[in-house]
Every structure is written in structure tokens, then in C-alpha cells.
């Protein structure tokens, strides 16, 4: 069997959590492959909203298993907080949740370093979620990191101290105050609690699953435009958010990737710094933020909002080999007289292009828009594609035509049920 990959095609927060939860029942295993507690994946069903940061979004389906892959960076304190929030939902964690021994550990000084680096960057800051993501991946690549499997080793504390000393030495070069003992106590408590979880050799776990004919959905975090290689560097996260990340983050061979589900919002949002060509600073932007409730699921920060950027979407589809598109938050576009969609970029000399450049969106570029007629209908309770307004059908057709990949799902609300199938998706 193949592994299907689900990932975000923009700057994160496309609605991945909702769709993973929606699709999970079709799979035996949901596997998160990268990122860490910088992610905030929202799921809504039975009138309850859940936000998951590190636990895969299939966890509410009792019949399926979930695994945190080796490509993830894991904060034990945040993990245990998430586990406590699940307490009331009767989830059999021993049967349902598995953690890769090779996942890297975020230790308290990683978070402190993240904050110190950001402060030192001043107005050039990345707008990190300050969850220690960059410093932890930095240690992984520099071969200094600690992995989850290390917590049971007799010399764990000694290795922890060595890593911490390195961090403290670095921090002594920064004008940054912090209180380590308070956070360290919570860290070691969480480490003790984590020893009771299923710590596994995830690459065997996943490949054994595959070879016995079981189906796997790989859950991405962040979005392709935040990818360490293909995002708007340096305003990116520190992991491979693209389909390739599912191979390295889970131990799956490229030939075993099946469908690639690309999730995008019907418009664009971004949290943190970095170029965003179609960003709106007017009342249309305010309307998107308000109607879309565009405030970060992890940090609560207001998200920057703008029109859909089709060259960027097509770029993300190319990098990932997307086979099926899911368009989220179509309901948020209700109420506009006109909707704009960016189809080209124009530089200062007037020349147009539909390619992402070296800086992705250089300062001299302007978006070239096509204007489309909006609609006033409220979509929250629509259940069939045909019942959606004609103007929205035209919007969907236009995007499909431009990008060259079918949109199989149109989402019209945060709830699991508010999901419209345009065309039954193919799963591996
Ligand atoms: P993720 O990080 O990709 O999982 O996305 P987030 O959970 O950070 O942000 C998506 C937000 O949009 C959440 O608050 C979801 O509940 C919400 N959402 C998802 N799909 C829809 C939709 O179709 N319409 C509306 N209005 N909200 C949605
Ligand atoms: P999900 O999985 C949106 C952004 C941050 C910042 C940059 C680097 O919920 O879609 P980091 O903490 O990784 O060093 O931050 O990336 N960012 C996200 N934006 N959704 C996310 O995750 C994000 N994870 C990181 O805002 O600009
Ligand atoms: Mg999110």
C-alpha cells in the first residue's frame, strides 16, 4: 500500500487539522511528519473545538492509530498539556498513540534561544512562534540534539546538561534575561510522564503497517511557502514542509507516496514576517480577518490576510506533486461584491511573470489581478456542490484551469460536517 500525504500549500493554517480529521476514518494510521508545537491544527465536531499542536489530527477516531514521526521536534511539556486536554474524551492512548524514538526533543533552552535570536534580529525578526523550533532543528543538523529515545538512557541528565551548557554559552552573548529553574522543573516532570507512552522505532512501525496492506495518511504541518528550501527564506520555518518531508520524516521510500492532497484557503493568510504580495491593508482585508476569524491557533496573533495568489499556489502544487486539491474557507468569501485573484506578478519595468523569484516576492513586484463576481449567499448549511452559487463554481473552475489539478473538496465551515465533496477523492 502507499502513503497518502496531506499538506498545506500556502503559509500554514489552511485547515489541515479539519481535513485530516475528516479523512482519517478512511485510513488505519495518521502519521505527523515534521514541525512541532509551532503548529496549531483545529478540529471541530459535535460542537466542540479542539486545537492540536503535536498530536496527529486522527486522534479522535477510536479505531485508528496515530504516530508522531522522526521528523517532528517534540516539546514534552506542551505534549503533556495536550494529553491532559484529551482526558475527558476517553481516548485509549496506549492503543492509539505512538511516538518515534527518533523525534528530536525541544529542551527549555531551545525556547529561550529562539526568543533571544528573535529579539536580536529586531525589525528583521522572522515572527517565530517562539516554540524553540529553529534552535532544535539547528541542533539536529549540527548533531548535538537529544532524541525522545534518549529519555530512558541512564545518562540522559548528563547529556541534557551538556547540551544546556552549550546553549548557556551561546546565550551569554545575547542581552536576554530568562528564568531557567521554573521551566526546567516542568520539563523533567513531563519527561518522566513520557516514559509511559509507546516509544517506537517508527520507520519499522510505518513500513510494517504498509506491508500488511494498511492505509496511512501523512499529516503535514505549516505550509509549502514556509518550507526551509522553497519558502520565502529566511522568513520560513526550519523543516521540510513539502511532500519530500513525508519521506524523511517518516522513513517512507519516495515510490511509496500515493496521493498528495494539497490544502489551500480560498484566499491567503500569513502569520509572522515575510513577503506577501496580495496582502490587503484595507477593509477587504479586515473583512477576511473578521469573517474568517483569522487569529493564530497557536499564538493568537492576528493573521495577515489577502487575495488568492495563483502563481504561488501553482508553484506549491509543482513542488509537491499535488494530485488533488481541497479548497478551504470558501464561506469566508461570501459577501464581497468582487473577488480578486492574482494571476501574474508585474515588476517595476512593467514586465509580467507567473514564476516565483529568488526572494519569492521581491519588493518591486505588484500583483496583477483578475476580478471575479462575488456572491452574497451564506454557505454554512450548503451540503452539495451543485447548491453552491454559480459565482463560486466559476471561481473553482478558474483555479482548476490555472493550476491544472482538480479541486475535490470545498469546505464551507469549520465543522467536520461542513465539507462538500465536489468529486469523490481517490485514496491509495
Ligand atoms: P491548520 O493549521 O492548517 O490545521 O489550520 P488552523 O486550525 O490553524 O486554522 C484554520 C482555521 O479555520 C481553524 O480555526 C478552523 O476551525 C477554521 N476552518 C477550517 N475550515 C474552515 C472553513 O471551511 N470555513 C471556516 N469559516 N473556517 C474553517
Ligand atoms: P500550522 O501547522 C502558520 C510561521 C511563524 C513564523 C515562521 C517561523 O498550524 O499551519 P517557527 O516558530 O516555525 O520558527 O516560525 O513560520 N509558522 C506558522 N504559520 N501556521 C503554522 O503551522 C506555522 N508554524 C510556523 O508564524 O512566521
Ligand atoms: Mg494552524
Keywords:
single chain, alpha/beta, binds magnesium ion, four-stranded mixed sheet, 428 residues, 20 strands, binds guanosine-5'-diphosphate, ten-stranded mixed sheet, binds 6-O-phosphoryl inosine monophosphate
Written description of the protein model:
This protein has helices spanning 16-24, 76-86, 93-96, 108-121, 133-141, 156-171, 180-194, 202-211, 244-250, 283-291, 310-320, 390-403; strands spanning 3-8, 29-32, 41-45, 48-52, 65-68, 73-74, 97-100, 104-105, 198-200, 216-219, 257-265, 268-270, 304-306, 308-309, 324-328, 338-346, 352-353, 366-373, 407-411, 419-421. By secondary structure, it is α/β, with parallel strands linked by helices. It has a ten-stranded mixed beta sheet with strand order 9-7-5-2-10-1-11-15-19-20, sandwiched between helices. Strands 14, 16, 17 and 18 form a four-stranded mixed beta sheet that branches. Strands 3-4 form a two-stranded antiparallel sheet. It is globular, with a radius of gyration of 21 Å. It binds guanosine-5'-diphosphate, 6-O-phosphoryl inosine monophosphate and magnesium ion (MG).
Low-confidence stretches: none
Task: State the end-to-end CA separation.
Answer: 7 Å
Broad structural category: alpha/beta
**Oligomer designation:** single chain
In spatial order, strands of the major sheet run 9-7-5-2-10-1-11-15-19-20
Count of beta strands: 20
Q: Bound small molecules, which ones? A: guanosine-5'-diphosphate, 6-O-phosphoryl inosine monophosphate, magnesium ion
Helix coverage percent: 25-40%
Amino acid at each position: 500500500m502507499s502513503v497518502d500525504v496531506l499538506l498545506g500549500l500556502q503559509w500554514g493554517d489552511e485547515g489541515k487539522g479539519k481535513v485530516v480529521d475528516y479523512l482519517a476514518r478512511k485510513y488505519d494510521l495518521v502519521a505527523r511528519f515534521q514541525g512541532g508545537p509551532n503548529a496549531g491544527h483545529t478540529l471541530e465536531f459535535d460542537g466542540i473545538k479542539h486545537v492540536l499542536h503535536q498530536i496527529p489530527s486522527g486522534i479522535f477516531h477510536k479505531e485508528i492509530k496515530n504516530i508522531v514521526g522522526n521528523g517532528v521536534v517534540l516539546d514534552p511539556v506542551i505534549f503533556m498539556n495536550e494529553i491532559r486536554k484529551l482526558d475527558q474524551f476517553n481516548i485509549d492512548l496506549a492503543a492509539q498513540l505512538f511516538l518515534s524514538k527518533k523525534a528530536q526533543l525541544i529542551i527549555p533552552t531551545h525556547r529561550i534561544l529562539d526568543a533571544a535570536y528573535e529579539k536580536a534580529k529586531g525589525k528583521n525578526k522572522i515572527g517565530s512562534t517562539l516554540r524553540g523550533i529553529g534552535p532544535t532543528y539547528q541542533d539536529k543538523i549540527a548533531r548535538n540534539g537529544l532524541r525522545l529515545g534518549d529519555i530512558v538512557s541512564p545518562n540522559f541528565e548528563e547529556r541534557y546538561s551538556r547540551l544546556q551548557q552549550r546553549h548557556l554559552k551561546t546565550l551569554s552573548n545575547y542581552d536576554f534575561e530568562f528564568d531557567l529553574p521554573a521551566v526546567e522543573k516542568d520539563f523533567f516532570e513531563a519527561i518522566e510522564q513520557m516514559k509511559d507512552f509507546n516509544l517506537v522505532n517508527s520507520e519499522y512501525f510505518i513500513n510494517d503497517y504498509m506491508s500488511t496492506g494498511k492505509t496511512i495518511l501523512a499529516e503535514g504541518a505549516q505550509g509549502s511557502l514556509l518550507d526551509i528550501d522553497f519558502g520565502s527564506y529566511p522568513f520560513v520555518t526550519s523543516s521540510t514542509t513539502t511532500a519530500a518531508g513525508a519521506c524523511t520524516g517518516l522513513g517512507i521510500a519516495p515510490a511509496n507516496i500515493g496521493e498528495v492532497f494539497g490544502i489551500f484557503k480560498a484566499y491567503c493568510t500569513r502569520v509572522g514576517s515575510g513577503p506577501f504580495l496580495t496582502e490587503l491593508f484595507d477593509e477587504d482585508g479586515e473583512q477576511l480577518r473578521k469573517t474568517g476569524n483569522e487569529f493564530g491557533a497557536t499564538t493568537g496573533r492576528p493573521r495577515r490576510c489577502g487575495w488568492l495568489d495563483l502563481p504561488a499556489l501553482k508553484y506549491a502544487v509543482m513542488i509537491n506533486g499535488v494530485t488533488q486539491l481541497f479548497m478551504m474557507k470558501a464561506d469566508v468569501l461570501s459577501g464581497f461584491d468582487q473577488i480578486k485573484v492574482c494571476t501574474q506578478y508585474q515588476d517595476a519595468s512593467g514586465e509580467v511573470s507567473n514564476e516565483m523569484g529568488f526572494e519569492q516576492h521581491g519588493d518591486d513586484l505588484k500583483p496583477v489581478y483578475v476580478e471575479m463576481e462575488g456572491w452574497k449567499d451564506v454557505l454554512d448549511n450548503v451540503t452539495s456542490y451543485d447548491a453552491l452559487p454559480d459565482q463560486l463554481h466559476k471561481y473553482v473552475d478558474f483555479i482548476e484551469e490555472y493550476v491544472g489539478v482538480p479541486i475535490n473538496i470545498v469546505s464551507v465551515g469549520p465543522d467536520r460536517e461542513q465539507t462538500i465533496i465536489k468529486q469523490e477523492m481517490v485514496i491509495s
